[in-house]
Every structure is written in structure tokens, then in C-alpha cells.
Amino acid sequence: MKTLYLQSEEKDVSKYVVFSGDPGRVRKIIKYMDDVQEIAVNREYYTYTGYYKGVKITVTSTGIGGPSAAIALEEMYECGMEVAVRLGTVMGLKDHLLGKFIIPTGIMRKEATSKTYVDASYPAVGDFELMTCMNKSVSENGFEYENAIMCSMDGFYSEMRESRLSKQMQNDVFEKIQELKKYNISGLDMESGTILTLTNLMGIKGCVVTMTTVLENLKDYLKGEARDKAEEDLIKVVLDGLVIYDKEAK
């Protein structure tokens, strides 16, 4: 029986699943893969299964934020997922991280979705073995990474970037970001807290691999070809990381 939103079933899905927020990025990922089959395209969820260097991998989009990411995680888990990797971009809070990878050891959970599953004291952490494979992939591909703590939030225009409304309401987004920097937080996103909470609750291996494409409040960001290349680098690192993990697991 197919799942409600991803319209997938166990026979369609690999034990290795890559999650990307942007459906457009999913289509970039599958260009690296062979024998790709479209499983379903429904709402924000674009799901494909194929092979990368002989390893069967499913790729699906989650849309933006924790609620839709949780649905994707839940339905892939119903289909037998054993390893989950979020492939995404992140807003860096440290200037030197622009254009570099952040593979977080843990997430500060300031989003609300994960709290509907478990108390806020429950840790959202990456699987050490899987993270180590992703670290190795970054290095083997000639890039730099940082294992750090990130933070996930719900409100992009209320917590991460100033907007006309935030200014109108005298909502100081900059002050919120400065508060996070006191805790040595390296980056901000909207999905990782939910994803790593759920992978731990499910008892499966999970990690997050992100590329820093913007800095706080968009004070600087990767532009044009640099942004495109960073996204391609991110895709290759994650796929190669799963191949490394698959080899070591065997």
C-alpha cells in the first residue's frame, strides 16, 4: 500500500534515503545516478530511486521546514528506510564558513515539530559512523568541513532574515541571531532538528550534510556560478559518502 503523501511503498525505496528540501535539487541529484525510476511526484515531494556507483539510493524532497520534513521521514520509515541523510544548504553564523561544509554533531531544537514527538531535552544528534563517512567524503573530494552545532528554527522572516513585517513589528531578528552566536552555533536551517530527532527515535542512522551558501541575514552569499558549483559539490559529497558507508558496512 502506498504512503499518503510520498505515494511510495517498500518495493520502491532503498534502505539509503537522501532528503533535500528543494524539489529542483532532487532533479540535479538524479543526474548523477543510473537506472533512475520516478516513484512519485506529489505536492512538494519528488521521489526517485536509482543507483550511484552500484549503490541503490532513494532521493526525495521535503519542502521547507520541519512539518513537511517529518512527513517525508515518517513515510520513508514506513517503506523500510535504514539510513537517512539530509542534503541541504545552511545560513552560516561564522564568516569563514561561507562556501564550506557543515556536518553537524547536533542541532539546537528551536523549531516546534520535533517537540510534538519528544521533550525538548531529547538530543538531535547525528550518527557518528555515518558522519565519519561523510567527513571522509568531503576530504577525499578536496573540500573543507566543520563538525559543529547548528540550530533549526521555524520562522525564516521572523527569526532568520529581516523583512518588511519584522521591521514593522519591531522584531529584532539580528538580536536573535546574536544570541545564538553566544552559544557557538555555526549555522541555521529549518529542517535538521526535526530530521535528527526522528532518526534517533526511529533507531536508524541519520546525519546532515550542509553547504554554507549564505551568511547571517544575507550579509554575504554565494552568487551565480559559485552557488551552482557549491550545490554540485554538495551532491557529489553526499552520494560518495553513502558509497563509503555502504562499503564499510559490508
Determine the mean pLDDT: 97
Strand count: 12
- Beta-strand fraction estimate: 25-35%
Tertiary shape: globular
Low-confidence stretches: none
Order of helices and strands: EHEEEHEEEEHEEHHHEHEH
Assembly type of the shown chains? single chain
- Percentage of helical residues? 25-40%
Largest sheet: 12 strands, mixed
- Gyration radius (Cα, Å) is 17 Å
Number of helices: 8
Please give the alpha-carbon distance between the first and last residues.
Answer: 30 Å
Briefly note the structural class of the backbone: alpha/beta
What can you see in these coordinates?
- The protein has 250 residues and is an alpha/beta fold.
- The chain has helices at residues 23-29, 66-78, 128-140, 156-160, 164-168, 173-181, 192-202, 224-249, and strands at 16-20, 34-42, 45-52, 55-61, 83-92, 101-102, 106-109, 124-125, 145-146, 149-152, 187-189, 205-215.
- The protein has eight helices and twelve strands.
- Strands 1, 2, 3, 4, 5, 6, 7, 8, 9, 10, 11 and 12 form a twelve-stranded mixed β-sheet that branches.
- Helix 3 (128-140) packs across helix 8 (224-249).
- The radius of gyration is 17 Å and the shape is globular.
- It starts with 15 loop residues before the first strand and ends with a helix.
At a glance:
The chain has 250 residues and is an alpha/beta fold. Helices cover 36% and strands 27% of the residues.
